[in-house]
Amino acid sequence: MKNDKAEKEKILTVADKLFRENGLYKTSMDELAALLMISKKTIYKHFPSKENLVKEITKFWMTGSTERVDKIVHSKTDVVSKFVKLLEDYSCDLSKVSDKWVKDFQIHYPDIWKSVEKFREEKIFYYARKLFKQGMKEKYIANIPTEIVIASHIASMHAIVNPKFLMENNFSMSEALKFVFEMQLNGILTEKGRIKYYNQKKKHIKK
Questions:
Q1: Which CATH number fits the domain that encloses residue 179?
Q2: How far apart are CA 83 and CA 193, in angstroms?
Q3: Residue 103 three-state SS
Q4: For residue 207, what pLDDT band results from cuts at 50, 70 and 90?
Q5: What are residue 107's phi and psi, to 5 degrees?
Q6: Domain for residue 147, yes or no?
Q7: Is residue 70 within a helix (H) or strand (E), and if so which, with residue range?
Q8: What residues make up the domain containing 92?
Q9: Domain annotation covers residue 71
Q10: pLDDT digits (tens, 9 = 90+) for 93-133
Q11: CA distance 5 to 27
């Protein structure tokens, strides 16, 4: 049982990396088997189809993402430091994703993509409320309606996570979302919060 679990996790990890780099549609199970140096039969033992593998990878990614963000949001530090760490994690995660991956997801696996967007929206609402409450208490975030800021952020993400938009404007998804995040952050932070944010960013750049 332990060997089966380790084998399955290895397939998920390698498939996730391969799909992110080369896209979902053109990456075949043959390529994955060759990279893992195992038979396709072994892959199908754990994942009956490519769509099933994509679903499992999505759950795998969601679990990992939730664990990382939970750790940051519930850490014992100020809200501005949390924003810096979240942006760093966000950028690092998105830098591993090709625009082709997003396009393939939206075209060939629309139902799974909808589950990704639903997950992302639910998590944004949950974490944003916690962070805003802390930030207002610390006087780093202005006293503005949380729901409006969250809805605005989600709408921006829907517009940006669009391969056509990215290609026409020559942005990577990581760059575009980083600009959106920082733009909105500047809008919600108090003067005290902005000073703290830029000081924290300088420290991270020096590391």
A1: 1.10.357.10
A2: 11
A3: helix
A4: low
A5: -85, -50
A6: yes
A7: helix 50-73
A8: 50-206
A9: yes
A10: 776 777 778 888 888 999 998 998 899 888 988 999 999 99
A11: 24
**Considering only CA atoms, which of 45, 66, 60 is closest in space to residue 12?**
60
pTM beyond 0.70: the answer is yes
Q: What would you report as the CA-atom Rg of the chain, rounded to the nearest whole angstrom?
A: 19
Q: Both tokens of residue 15?
A: 């498939």
Q: Which has the minimum average pLDDT: 44-53, 70-79, 193-202?
A: 193-202
Count of the separate structural domains present in the chain: 1
Residue for token pair 């916690």: 130
Q: Are 18 and 56 in contact (CB under 8 A)?
A: no
Q: Is residue 21 part of a domain?
A: no
Residue 34 lies in a domain: no
pLDDT greater than 90 at residue 44: yes
Q: 44-48, 82-86, 168-172, 201-205 — which is least confidently predicted?
A: 201-205
Q: Are 110 and 54 in contact (CB under 8 A)?
A: no
Two tokens at 74?
């519930």
Q: Supply 10's token pair.
A: 């290895």
Tokens of 193: 């919060």
Type of residue at 98: S
